[in-house]
Amino acid sequence: MEINQIIDNIYPLPTKSKDLIKQSIIETKLPKGHILFKANKVETSIYFIKKGIARAYAYSDENEITFWFGKEGAPIVSMKSYVNNEKGYEDVELLEDCELYELKIEQLQKLFLEDIEIANWGRKFAELELIKSEERLIALQFNTATQRYLALLKNYPSIIQRVQLSHVASYLGITQVSLSRIRANIK
Amino acid sequence: MEINQIIDNIYPLPTKSKDLIKQSIIETKLPKGHILFKANKVETSIYFIKKGIARAYAYSDENEITFWFGKEGAPIVSMKSYVNNEKGYEDVELLEDCELYELKIEQLQKLFLEDIEIANWGRKFAELELIKSEERLIALQFNTATQRYLALLKNYPSIIQRVQLSHVASYLGITQVSLSRIRANIK
DNA sequence: TTTCGTTTTTATCATTTGTTAAATAGTTTC
DNA sequence: GAAACTATTTAACAAATGATAAAAACGAAA
Question: Which of A113, A126, A137 is closest, CB to CB, to B127?
Fold first, then answer.
């Protein structure tokens, strides 16, 4: 997905403000398997996915648990770094060869203080991520594993086609064995 | 908690900008049991809790599930209404007699477009809520019910003292019977 | 195609949580 | 304080999920 569309999908900006953001963006290609973010590190950039797919995961004891997937158009952000300049808890791994737009957090924050349009763009960006996070939270709290799997299948069919089921299972909050059983019961 | 402190805890504002927000705020007292937000309704205000405690809940089949608690200093927001002008899915009930600061969403949004300091305050507001939501999400996905209960006990002991256990149970994503068992096993 | 390594499914048993109902404890009202 | 109501705990059984191991299916590479 093109950067103009990604920016405007969040909050339509006048050309002048959009150019300010675009001047700070660098395009990069990175291979499948690349670890974009490392846990316990303050990340200095955010990214937008032009092409490809990625996941965020963290460790609980020995187990790695995936809690986010992103595809074309999605932002990749270590929220703790972005919001509070603190170490994040997540690794982010590219699951396919990816083309990314990189944006330095420091430069973006400077723009927030200089341009009211961009400040409102940043507000909307956080608000939209918040809505998504709330919806995930409620799905996790309200629905059974089977319902969550069916919802994922319906809303993000591409995830299940493009990603290992072990990652999907931990994303759903269950073991891979449990996901296999659910899939067997549905057919 | 006083409104100046609530505002500045989110993002410190110069007096002039803070006054603009405060001019739009009305103080209200409402009794225990009052339903502040109704599900399937577009809410037109957000609130901050000066004194008291509240919960947000929604229905899954017949069951009412609590997914948020707020006490002194916390914002009360129907995010779908606030962000997208859409119907929310939650009721909000006051669990004690409350003193609230009310702020019309429409007036705040006007300020976002006029004052860059307030726009950045609104950005920070969403960002901080986002961090909280992510932390809840991860706790729900990573931890067992027992761990989540212990964490609540540690981080928000006042909730468990001030709120019915049936609400706490649904907040933890388990039944009340299950919570009773967990409590019995811990002692 | 065959082989090797990885992913997914199946099987078995243990543990956790849900469901329903009854018992106990706690609160409010008269 | 007794009665009525509400909240919490306990009990018994059912259902869902976890853990471990083995089998089957799938993919990549020779």
Answer: A126
Closest partner CB to A119 (pick from B67, B84, B123)? B123
Task: Determine the pLDDT at residue B63.
Answer: 76
pLDDT at residue A106 above 70?
Answer: yes
Please check whether strand D approaches the CB of B176 to within 7 Å: yes
In this prediction, residue A156 carries a pLDDT of 82
**Chain B CB contacts of A11 below 8 Å:** none
pTM, two decimal places: 0.91
| Nearest-CA residue relative to C1' of C8 | A180
């006051």: which residue's tokens? B94
Q: Where in chain A are the domains?
A: 3-142, 143-187
Tell me the H-state helices in A45-115. Answer: 79-84, 105-114
pLDDT tens-digit map of A29-69: 998 889 999 999 999 999 999 998 889 999 877 778 888 98
Per-residue burial over A145-160, b = 16 or more CB atoms within 10 Å of its CB, e = otherwise? bbebbeebeeeeeebe
Q: What is the CATH number of domain B3-114?
A: 2.60.120.10
Contact A34, A106 (CB under 8 A): no
CATH superfamily of A3-142: Jelly Rolls (2.60.120.10)
